[in-house]
Amino acid sequence: MISRKTEESEKTREILRRVHQVELKINRLVNDSLAGEYHSAFKGQGMNFDEVREYHSGDEVRNIDWNVTARTGKPFVKQFVEERELTIMLMIDVSASGWFGSCEETKRDLAAELGSMFAFSAIRNQDKVGLILFSDEVEHYIPPGKGNNHVLRVIRDILFFKPKGKKTNVSKALDYVNQILHRKAIVLLLSDFWLNEPYEENLERMIRKMDITNRKHDLISLSVTDPLEKQLPSCGLLAIEDIETGEQAYIDTRDRKTLEAFNRMSEEHSDRLRTLLRKKKIDQLELETGKPYIKEVHKFFKLRSKRRG
């Protein structure tokens, strides 16, 4: 008979093993190139005075330090450095729909790996990182912190936290982050945006909340989807179930009109979200299970860095 203490010890070893595996994989991905792109894509929150130096031709006249200039008889200019330390807040959707996956990984797996990658990137750049896990309620919160032990705790909770709720309420989670974050932060929202009915009403509410968050902070939407949600194959009578509500239905994928209607509705939902986010000037990165994501992240960082100068 295995004792409870032995079971808990084995469970702890399994958690540590999985966290270590993720750490090794992410460390390979978060190379010097990606770390540099992260630094460029996420600018500091301001400029701090560093020192003065002699004026050189082409220097900004507005930066002349008139007190030092008058005292020395030579023109001197002020130099500034970027206030670099940032706060990265990871908001990860842990509702039941995340457990869907038609490939080797689920949407929850992909979101966990992305969250871990951003957490390691933040720590490597001496930034703080915090975590919010949410379903239809905020389920778990880790305040922003620094250091290797802190980021390993964040990753452990991303991988192994067991939520109580099944449904999704992005708006409530955004209300929470707006209440607890008093300084400007980079907010990374990872979700499949599987909204409950009434869909349009919930979508509009969510966009309003995202707009508020983006005005206070810097919100980035990371949409995590599965290819089977976008394009159903023609494979006969297919039973489908809403994981969050338990509702079941059958779709005859041999019926071309039915199949086209389903695929069109899925694409319209994606287009609608994409259009609304663009209108509110909220950056969006769209990723799919079963596809390498590192190139898409590289491209996103470069575009964001270029756009923000």
Task: Note down, in words, how this protein is organized.
47% of the residues lie in helices and 22% in strands. The protein is an alpha/beta fold. It folds into 2 domains: 49-81, no CATH class; 87-307, 3-Layer(aba) Sandwich (Rossmann fold), CATH 3.40.50.410. The protein has a 6-stranded mixed sheet with strand order 5-4-3-6-7-10, with helices on both faces. Strands 1-2 form a two-stranded antiparallel sheet. The chain is globular. The chain starts with a helix and ends with a helix. The relative contact order is 0.13.
Oligomer: single chain
How large a portion of the residues is in β-strands, by DSSP E? Answer: 15-25%
Principal-axes shape call: globular
Q: What portion of residues is helical? A: 40-55%
CATH superfamily of the largest domain: von Willebrand factor, type A domain
- The name of the CATH architecture of the largest domain is 3-Layer(aba) Sandwich
The SSE string, one letter per element, is HHEHEEHEEHHEHEHEEHEH
Largest sheet: spatial strand order: 5-4-3-6-7-10
Low-confidence stretches: none
Helical segment tally?
Answer: 10
CATH fold-type name of the largest domain: Rossmann fold
- The CATH class of the largest domain, by name, is Alpha Beta
- Mean pLDDT level: 84
Count of discrete domains = 2
Round the Cα radius of gyration to an integer and report it: 23 Å
State the secondary-structure class: alpha/beta
Distance between the termini: 64 Å
